[in-house]
Design brief:
Blueprint (H helix, E strand, L loop, with lengths): L19 E3 L19 E3 L19 E3 L16 E3 L1
Parallel strand pairs: 1-2, 2-3, 3-4
């Protein structure tokens, strides 16, 4: 997504069939819109300024989460079966 601009993350709020999303190296700071993405299996947040992962508590299908180069410290809300890359 290097050459794309994220306009409004709320555009994905109703996409319950979304399975993978790569937001790496984008200016995203808020992923609360992902709470409705219950089919999400892979999420890449590398190089973002996201700090709050509470929206991911509803993402029970999440299998892969890339948090490299992020300021995230609390991962307690991430499903325990999820592989987290830091």
């Amino acid at each position: 997504m290097d050459d794309y601009e994220i306009i409004d993350s709320k555009l994905i709020i109703h996409n319950t069939s979304l399975e993978a999303l790569d937001l790496s190296r984008t200016p995203v700071t808020d992923i609360s819109a992902l709470a409705g993405c219950t089919a999400l299996q892979a999420l890449h947040l590398s190089g973002t300024l996201v700090t709050d992962l509470s929206a991911l508590a509803a993402c029970k299908s999440l299998e892969w989460l890339d948090l490299s180069y992020t300021p995230v410290t609390d991962i307690s809300m991430v499903p325990s079966t999820c592989i987290i890359y830091r």
